[in-house]
Design a protein that fits this description.
Blueprint lengths: L9 E4 L24 H10 L3 E7 L1 H4 L5 H16 L7 E5 L15 H10 L7 E4 L2 H10 L2 E5 L4 H4 L9 E3 L2 H12 L1
Parallel strand pairs: 1-2, 1-4, 2-3, 4-5, 5-6
Helix pairs in contact: 1-7
């Protein structure tokens, strides 16, 4: 296990396009499929004692496309699929609001990361945010964490829109995890 000082660190993963295939406004658990290597990536972090937390914007709720119960069901399916492969998610936080609601929990604002840090005693300054969108990398910057962009999901098309440079651009979640582990050692 890595020596991680007093407060634990975490890897905050975006859900859609990072852990599971991007499929638009995902509301049916049967439509969720993991990105190749996602379970292995999460499991490697679990083995090292690094907290794995999902942070996701789910504006489909605020837009009236689906309910919060649908989000919970999709999240449950994701954790079941990961668990069946020996991987564990420590916590899931999501923003259900419409983008125009101007809430503090919608990425790139750091409300959900701050809540997770408080509830899990996480050192945000030594933690990582991994996602496929500009807002994920900006979230990392706004929270004082390290931002990694994956090329899966919307990632490849987001590179040109970046105003905050990611610390690393990864092919996928497994590549990002390998980079993080090397960065920590």
């Amino acid at each position: 296990m890595l020596e991680l000082n007093k407060r634990p660190i975490a890897v905050f993963f975006d859900r859609d396009g990072t852990i599971n295939e991007e499929s638009g406004y995902l509301s049916n658990p049967d439509d969720l499929s993991l990105i190749k290597g996602a379970a292995e990536a999460v499991k490697r972090l679990n083995t090292l004692g690094i907290k794995v937390i999902v942070i996701s914007n789910q504006s489909g709720v605020g837009r009236g496309y689906f309910s919060e119960e649908d989000v919970v069901r999709v999240n449950r399916r994701m954790t079941e699929l990961l668990s069946s492969r020996g991987a564990r998610i420590d916590a899931i936080y999501y923003c259900p609001h419409h983008p125009e609601d101007n809430c503090e929990c919608r990425k790139p604002r750091p409300g959900l990361l701050k809540k997770a840090a408080l509830e899990h005693s996480i050192d945000l300054g030594r933690s990582y945010v991994v996602g496929d969108k500009k807002s994920d990398v900006e979230l990392a910057g706004n929270a004082g964490s390290k931002g990694i962009l994956v090329k899966t999901g919307f990632g490849s098309s987001q590179l040109m829109a970046m105003t905050t440079a990611p610390i690393f651009v990864a092919e996928d979640i497994l590549d990002a995890t390998e980079w993080i582990i090397n960065d920590l050692t």
